[in-house]
Amino acid sequence: MKIRIIGAGPAGLYLASLLKAADPHHDIVILERNRRDATWGFGVVFSDRALEFLRADDEAMYQYLTPHMETWPDLAIGHQGERVAIAGNGFASIGRLELLTLLYQRVEAQGIEIRFETEVASIASLGPVDLVVACDGAFSFVRRDHEARLGTSTDWRSNPFIWYGTSKAFDSLTLSFRQTPHGVFCAHHYRYSPTMSTFLIEVEADTWQKAGFDTLSPEETIRHCEAVFTEELDGHPIISNNSAWRRFPAVWNQRWHFDNVVLLGDALRTVHFSIGSGTRMAMEDAVALARALKQASSVADALERFQHTRLPVMQKIWDAANVSLRWYETMGDLMHLSPIELAYAYMRRTGRVSHEAIRRMDPRLAAAYERMHPETNP
Ligand SMILES: Cc1cc2nc3c(=O)[nH]c(=O)nc-3n(C[C@H](O)[C@H](O)[C@H](O)COP(=O)(O)OP(=O)(O)OC[C@H]3O[C@@H](n4cnc5c(N)ncnc54)[C@H](O)[C@@H]3O)c2cc1C
């Protein structure tokens, strides 16, 4: 088959690798607008569960990637100067550029061409092909140009966030909340290499206005954020990589394909960063599409099969992510809670984790909460 993949992010790269492994005769080219060494952001995380899924799907890829990851067993909440560790929340992380570089090497070793610095402007420009896979990210032009056929909805959420890094190597994935005169700041931070961490800051829209971020320069913005998180940063600087305030688009599509074109990864639907599943979902999409193409008798049949089999699993995580993001949109209302109560509220935010589940995951947290709220332990 002649296959053209638009976008060399995790979705496009992993799909290409899976398809070539399934049939070495496929003619696959990946078209990527950026340079090979250019990327935005810092590190990305995978939960233990996400890695289990990857292992079950593709042991070889799991073994290839995991030696490059940083891992830690707990997640922590920082609030009112205290730190509450929550057991049973193992995570692993890797620099986005390192992940992409590993995937570039894998794909190229399989004989697949990645054409960097090649921006695709239209599907027609690809010429006659059997299959076009749009892996062109959250702002996919393929999706934008065919919104009506795909039944696209884009829900722009209210919280501004900015994706920074820092040279401080944190020892776990931590959510640090800081009350300021302008409102609450939340930093999601985690180590992704021995010397670097992601440091993503999120605020409510009102806080962003009151802090005057609309008028601050990039340098002033960093200084302001460093001052809010002085204790967490411990003298380390906040580092920018073309970092800018953005709001999160929660994207969904009723239909995932048209003609011989299919969407994958963030182009297909976005997953809020607070559940750390965007990269995992992109890679799972690739597994599902590769499997459908192997099983089906035609491209049309495969694309139908892909949507049919992938939808239920994906919808569950997408729904959880959308509940999770709303929790941060009213985080100001939670700041009166004690650190234990906030950690507990965080764990229950998606409505999918029961008190019993917390008891199993972290008996100490459950017991501490029960002491404060005896009604939870009748
Ligand atoms: C602030 C933030 C934090 C995140 N944190 C995490 C996290 O902790 N864990 C996690 O798993 N995920 C995280 N994610 C999500 C994760 O980065 C994405 O879900 C994941 O990268 C999706 O992969 P993708 O391949 O679909 O898209 P992308 O990685 O976005 O790749 C799309 C590619 O397409 C290329 N492209 C776009 N248009 C064109 C064009 N016209 N022609 C050619 N090429 C084109 C782009 O240059 C890009 O390389 C985060 C995202 C954000 C915004």
Keyword list:
alpha/beta; binds flavin-adenine dinucleotide; 14 helices; 39% helix; 8-stranded mixed beta sheet; 378 residues; 6-stranded mixed beta sheet; FAD/NAD(P)-binding domain
Structure commentary:
It is a single chain. The chain is α/β, with parallel strands linked by helices. It has a domain at 2-40 and 96-156 and 249-328: FAD/NAD(P)-binding domain (3-Layer(bba) Sandwich), CATH 3.50.50.60. Helix content is 39%, strand content 26%. It has 14 helices and 17 strands. It has helices at residues 10-22, 48-57, 59-65, 96-109, 141-145, 147-150, 205-210, 218-228, 230-233, 278-295, 299-329, 339-347, 355-361, 363-372, and strands at 2-6, 27-31, 43-47, 70-72, 75-79, 82-86, 91-95, 113-115, 131-134, 152-166, 173-180, 183-193, 196-203, 238-239, 246-253, 257-258, 261-263. The strands form three sheets. Strands 5, 6, 10, 11, 12, 13, 14 and 15 form an eight-stranded mixed beta sheet that branches. The chain has a six-stranded mixed beta sheet with strand order 8-2-1-9-17-16. A three-stranded antiparallel beta sheet has the order 3-7-4. Helix 12 (339-347) crosses helix 14 (363-372). The longest helix is centred in the last third of the chain and has 31 residues, at 299-329. The N and C termini lie far apart (62 Å). The relative contact order is 0.16. The mean pLDDT is 95. Flavin-adenine dinucleotide is lined by residues 6-12, 31-34, 44-45, 119-120, 135-137, 141, 163, 200, 265-267, 273, 276-280, 282.
